[in-house]
Specification:
Elements (H helix, E strand, L loop, with lengths): L5 E2 L2 H22 L6 E7 L3 H17 L2 E7 L5 H13 L5 E4 L11 H7 L11 H8 L9 H13 L7 E5 L6 H10 L3 E5 L6 H5 L4 E4 L17 E4 L3 E4 L7 E4 L4 H4 L5 E2 L6 H25 L19 H7 L5 H7 L7 E3 L5 E3 L2 H5 L7 E7 L9 H15 L4 E5 L4 H5 L7 E2 L2 E4 L1 H5 L5 H25 L2 H8 L2 E2 L2 E2 L3 H10 L11 H8 L12 E3 L9 E3 L10 E3 L1 E3 L4 H8 L3 H10 L1 E4 L5 E3 L6 H8 L6 E5 L4 E4 L14 H11 L4 E9 H16 L5 E6 L1 H7 L13 H4 L3 H6 L1 H13 L4 E6 L6 H13 L4 E5 L1 H4 L5 H10 L16 H13 L3 E4 L1 H12 L7 E4 L19 E4 L1 E5 L4 E5 L19 E2 L6 E2 L3
Parallel strand pairs: 1-11, 2-3, 2-4, 5-6, 5-7, 7-8, 8-11, 14-28, 14-29, 15-27, 15-28, 20-23, 29-30, 30-31, 32-34, 33-36
Antiparallel strand pairs: 9-10, 12-13, 13-26, 16-17, 17-26, 18-19, 21-22, 24-25, 26-27, 35-36, 37-38
Helix pairs in contact: 1-10, 2-10, 6-7, 6-10, 14-32, 17-23, 18-20, 22-23
Amino acid sequence: MTGEAKIISGTLVAKNIREELCREVKSLRASNEHFVPGLRIVQVGGREDSNVYIRMKIKAATEIGINALHVQLPRSITELELLDKVRELNADPQVHGIIVQMPLDCDTQIDAHRVADAVSPAKDVDGLHTLNEGRLATGDLSGFLPCTPWGCIELIRRTGVEIAGAHAVVLGRSKIVGTPAAELLKWNNATVTVCHSKTRNLEEITRSADILLVGIGVPEMVKGSWIKPGAVVIDCGINCKPDASKASGTRLVGDVDYEQAKLVAGYLTPVPGGVGPMTVAMLMKNTVKSAVKAAARANRKSWSLQPLPLRPVRPVPSDILIARAQRPKHIGNLAEEIGLEPNEVSLYGSNKAKISLNVLQRLRTRQAGNYVVVAGITPTPLGEGKTTTLMGLVQALGAHRQRNVVAALRQPSQGPTFGIKGGAAGGGYAQVIPMEEFNLHLTGDIHAVSAANNLLAAQLDTRIFHEATQTDKALYQRLVPSVKGQRKFSPIQLRRLQRLGIGKTNPDELTEAEYGKFARLDIDPETIMWERVVDINDRYLRDITIGQSPTEKGLSRKTRFSIAVASEIMAVLALSGCLADMKKRLGEMVVAFNKSGQPVTADDLGVTGALAVLLKDALEPNLMQSLEGTPVLVHAGPFANIAHGCNSIIADEIGLKLVGSEGFVCTEAGFGSDIGMEKFCNIKCRNSGRHPDAMVLVTTVRAIKMHGGGAPVTPGAPLNKQYTEENLELLEQGLPNLLQHISNGQAFGMPVIVSINAHVADTPAEHKLLKDAALKAGAFAAVVSTHWSDGGAGAVPLADAVIEACKLPNKFKLLYDLELPLVDKMNKIAQTMYGAAKVELSKEALEQVQRLIDAGFGKLPVCMSKTSGSVTGDASIKGAPKGFTLNVENVYVSAGAGFVVAMCGDITKMPGLSTRPAIYDIDLNTETGQIEGLF
C-alpha cells in the first residue's frame, strides 16, 4: 500500500451510530409512547475532567432520546451510602443503564471495584461488571460489551479489513481497554498477541501485526518503524503534551506517533476524533440495547414461568402433608417470572411478598386479561370446594395450558382456622402454599385492620366521654391546644370546619357558638354502629358492656365485638383503588348519628390520617404460589354473608395487568352465587368498572343431594349413606338449587361453566345427570373436575372450557340501577337471585332506611346480609323454593365501603367455638419448628 494511511474518523462513525440509535428509540416509543430509555451517570465529587466526559455523555444521550440524568454525590459519601444509591438505581424500572464515573473523587476510602460490581449486570452499560467480563472471556457476547474495545472493533469493521484470520497485536492489558479488546478480537476470529511492559522484542512483534491496537498511556510511544506497512492502527491513548504554539500550552496526542504512523499504516485513528467519540457512542448503544430488552420484557405476552412438578400419590394424603411435600420456589423468583420489577416486591421471607401499587402505574397502558369469577351453589356446612376448584383451575391454565394466570383470593380469618371450618387455601393437590402461612398471620393485614378498627372505636367512645364531662370552651381548647403560645388547626380539623360552613382558619377567631359547633359531635349512643373486633371466634364477646370502670364516670353502654373480617375497614381495603381512595373512604365511614340525625364520620372524629397510616402497607396485595408454582395474589377478606365477600379490587387490577390481554385472572366470590357472586358484580365490579368474562359455578353431588332432601350434613359426623351410594332420585330432586345458581350467573350476562367437584363416592351416572341438567339450563359447559386428587391435570377440561367461554363477546350487565330506591334494590336482588316474591322490612328497618335516605345514602348499592345455608333467609330451608317473603330486620350504612347493608334475619358477626374446635389438634413441634394438626 502506498501513500498516507486512510484516516478512520471516529467522530463520523459515532455520528452515524447515534443517528441509527435515534431512529431505534423513535421506533421503540412509537409502540409505547410512555416508554423512555433511562441512563443514570453516578459521580462522586466534582473533578472537572470527569465533568467534561459526563457532559459529552448527556449531550449524546439527549440527541438520541435517552433520558440521561447526572447523579452527583458529595465527596464525603461513604461506601455504604454509595452502594445503597447504586442498589436504588438497580431497582428503578425507569433506569436501563447505570454508569459509575471513575475515578471516584471522595474523602473516604471506597473500593471502586466493589462499587462497579454493585451495578446490576443487566444495567451495566459500561460492560465492566465481573459477570459481563466473564461472559466476554468465555465468548458469550450477549451481555454488555465494554465500550472502548467495542468501539475499536466497530472502527476496524468500518475499514472493510477482515478481522477473521488476521494477526492482531494488542499493546496494553488494562482491564478497561487492552484485555477486553484482546478477547473481542479473539472471538472475532483473529489470532491475538497481547503485549505489555514485560514483553521482549516488542517492536518485532508489533511489526508483524495486521491489526495493531494500542492502549498503554505513553505519549507517542509507537513509532512508524513499529508498524507493518498497510496495517490497521487503532490508537486508544489520550495524553497531554506541552505545545507552546497552542493557547492552552498543550495538545492532545495518542500513544502512537501520528505523523510517522500515517506514512506506514493503511488505516489510522486520529487523536482526538478517533476512539474517544466511539466510546460514548457504544455506551449509548448499550443503553438502548438494555432499554429494548426492558421494553420486550414489559411487552411479552407469555411469562417465563417454571411450573413445579406435581407427583400425586394414592391414597391422597392430608392437605398439610401434600403442602409440605412440595418445595415452593423462592417468591422473588416467581415475582421475576411474572414480570414484576425488584422495587415492586417486598419480601416477607422466601415464601411470600408484598406487591407495590406502583406496578399499576408502570403497566397502565397494558391491556387487561380475561376476568373469571368462581362461585358456588348453596353449600353444605362442609363447603363444596370452591377455593380448591379455583386453585385447580389456575394450576391447569398455568402449568398445563401455559397461559398467564393469577389466582386472586381473600385472606382467611383465623376464626375459622382455629374453629371448625378449617383453612381456605384449597385442598388436596390444588392448594396455596405454604398453607400454614396462608391460613395464619400471612403479612399481618388482618391485624392492621383490627388495630385501625379498634383505634376508631376507642376514639369514638373517648369523644363521647370528653364531650359529656367538659364545657364547650374547655373541650375546644383541648382539641386545639396552645403550643408555645399559638393555636393551630390540623388539616383534618380544617376539613371539619369546611363541612360545618365555618370559613375561618385562625383558632382564635371562632366565636363561643362556633366553639361548641366545632367541638361537639353530639353523638347519639343509641345509633352507634361501630364495634370493636378481634380475629378469633369468641361467643362471649357477642354482647358486652363497656365503660364500667369508675374512671369513666358512669358512661357505660352495651355493645359487642365482631370478628375482624366483618369490620367495614376490611371492606374498604377490598374496594379501594389506591391510597388516596382508601383514605377518602376511611374518612367517610359513618360510625353513628348525632342527636339531630346527621351522620358522624371517622373524619369528624379526627382519625382518618391515623387509620391510613396503620393500613398503608395492608393495601398492598400479598404474593404466594400454588402447588404447581403459579402465582396467587392474596388480599383482603370481607365476610360474604356480612360484607361483599370478595378479595380486593387492587389485587385483581394488578393481576389483570400482569397477565396481559391473553391471560386470565380467576377470583372467588364467597359462599353461593346468591351471596358472593351477586355482590361481586353489583358492588365490586360496579366500583372497579371491570366486566367479568365468565363465571365458574362449583357444585357437588353431595350438596345437590342435600338440597333434594338428603339427611343433614354435619361437620365431624359421618356422612349418611345417601351421600356415599348412588341415588339419582335424590339428586334429581335437588337440581332446582343448581338451576337457580346457573340462572344467577346468566342474569348478569355471563357464560356459566359448571364444574362438578368430584368426590370418591360419586358415580358416572350422577355426574351425567348433573351435566345434562346444567347444559339443558343453558350453561356454556359442564365438566367433571378431579383437581383435588390430580392437581391441575384434573382441571384441564375446566380450563379449556374457560378459555373458550372467554372468547365470547362480553355481555356483562349489572342487576340494578343506583337510581332505584333502596327497597326496590333489595326486591330486585331477592326476586332475581333468591327466587323470593318480595322483601318485607321490619318497622325498625323502615325507619333506618328513611334515615339513610335523609342522610344522602339512598343511591348506594345494597349488600344483602343473609344466611349462606339457603337461598332463602332461613338456613333450614334447602333446595330453591319460589315465591317466599324475605324479612329484613335491620338496615345500616357502610359509607366508606360504599354500600347499604340489609340484615336478613339474625346474622351473627362473631362466630363461636364448638365443643371441640380445631384448636385441640393444632400444635407446634418444638424440635422441628413445624406446625402440626392444621388440616
